[in-house]
Amino acid sequence: MSTGKRSRFDGALRATLWFWPFVAAVVSVVVTILLLMVRPDPGPVWATWLWPSGVDAATTLLQAVASSIMTATTLIFSLTVVALQLASQQFSPRLLREFARDRVTQVVLAILVSTFVVSVTGLRGMDADRPLPVLVPAVVLVLGIGSALALLFFVGHIVKSLRVDTMMVSVHAEASRTTRQSYPEYADHSKNPRPGLPGPERGTLVVSPSSGFIKAVWPEDLVQAAAEHGAFILVGVRPGDHVTVGTPLASIWADDGDSASAEVGELVREAVIRAVDLGFERTLEQDAALGLRQLTDIAVKAISPSINDPITAAHAVGYCADLLVQLQGRKLGPQQHNDEHGTPRVVTPDRDHRYYLDLVCAPIRRFGCSEPLVLTALLRMLRDCAVNARDDTHRGNIEDQVDLILESMDEQVLPYDGDAVRDLAARVELALGGNVDDAYRDRAGETRSV
Predict the structure, then answer these.
(1) Contact 354, 399 (CB under 8 A)
(2) I want to staple 113 with a disulfide (CB 3.0 to 4.6 A). Which of 21, 123, 128, 179 is the partner?
(3) Which residue ranges in the chain fall short of pLDDT 50?
């Protein structure tokens, strides 16, 4: 199985709520059928110890547990729907996928489904004219107790999950993982595209067969296909992009830089379409920008007039600051992928430092222009980025964002509050100039104000 197919399969399993409960149901049916075959007659000591009562009591237990489990499962679905509705309305509709991927919800549902299936399947083997399958009621008793504990744990888990800080931590962790996996270290220049590679002219164009979001691009599969057919592929899309049917995905050349033959072009075109994973929604698998978008959504929603919670917005900006600092420690931009002989085979595009800064600063700056607390949170974020800037490009982009924040500050902001914003802007300049101590000298006061 190719890297792309395997990763798509793994991602689909993680994102589905039904898979593990379905597996648990199938396993439970098989196990229960096997347990029904164990009918000790006459009952040994261990059988009497496992279930001292008769068939009628066992049947009553199985019926009661099956009925109770259906009620508990209904409760879990109700709580999950409430959580999804709250996350969509109060925070961001792009957070719903995280709830479907929640492993605790999947495990609890699997436990409840297993208990229900064992109870129902076990009922068909309860016969007063035959010896009692003592293992079935004993297992159902244990599963019933386990289901009750799982339900209590789930209620506590869902309450914790509904906290906005928990959601931000989850998004931050996923985006951090994606950043580490998607970008090489800043000092690693091994994937920098070398000069002289073919440009877009004369290439055989590969267009999208359908519309949707780019969920992932698998360069390993592209390198293999290009090496097999003596081709070079310039990918034109990146994870998170939205494409429409018939729009370009990539261009293909022969090794000598000329247009690829019709046969090679067709074979590589099929490989490109297989290696570019399209879907109806963005995912965090390779799209670090989605994590920043989700955190930005939370911040923008928090400062909307209907919610008016600038503190949450400031906290979201704090998580964005950490992600931006991580991105500054990575080599952003296009990446070159070579075959085993060191021959360039694929170049994939990617977002640059300016894009990521705009992604966070622009919407929060526009919607929070009249709230000094939000503006100062953005400037604190830029100060952290300034201290960790790796080159003049980083510093220039940060300085541009500082200027935009000052220009966008609403005229209705009182002079006293405006002075605090301008003071932090000056401290960002100090950080850019290397005067880190003075840049952070006001940290205690900031903490008290937030």
Answers:
(1) no
(2) 21
(3) 1, 447-448
